[in-house]
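Escalated from tier 1: PRP holo job.
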Amino acid sequence: MLHIVDNPLITVKLNYMRDEKTNSKDFRTLLDEISSLMTFEVFRDLKALPTGDKIKTPTGVTIDKLHLNYNIIVVPILRAGIGMSNGVINMLPTARIGHIGLYRDEKTLKPVEYFCKLPKVENPLVLVCDPMLATGGSACDAISMIKSKGYTNIRLLNLVGAPEGIKEVMKKHPDVDIYIAAQDEKLNEKGYILPGLGDAGDRIFGTL
Ligand code: PRP
Ligand code: URA
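Tier 2 regenerated the structure:
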């Protein structure tokens, strides 16, 4: 299922990120803030359940200690996904972090894998993060890698998605919910999203 996280706070911040004049530092800060805001929508359906332990408030009342019904694993796709993971983790201090290393071959536009390290937890819910969903190749490969390690409960968080990429993920991984801030128009001949925001990894890390 596709969830477009439509909120004017996010739309205005994303609009600033799209501006070619926005520098690396501001770009990183905005991505971090949007990622935190989007986290609320991504996990809106989770439940706060009693752990079985109790806590006492300063007013002397004893109540249940609570925790989330899933153990969250945040998995940024290297490199650009790193720009989203801190914003997500700031909202989820108990989350564990995995990493998947993929880059798009500039000629074939196919993803090339170079790293995969995922934490093992009971009852996991994996959130894959990457600002850009262009052809969908990187996201589909990352999700396949995660599934091949035995994880079944997976969500995908992107900032901007092209219709082509959204369609591809929905076709190859219909069990994975996608959360994006904006569905853009199309891809150009080099596989860049239009209007998009350029090369997210380069803008985050200043490697332009
Ligand atoms: C970008 C982006 C995604 C991928 C999207 O990464 O961060 O991972 O491209 O394109 P796709 O949907 O067509 O696969 P890139 O390969 O540029 O690597 P980087 O994060 O290291 O910059
Ligand atoms: N990767 C990016 O960083 N930007 C795009 O527009 C497409 C893929």
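The longest helix spans residues 24-42.
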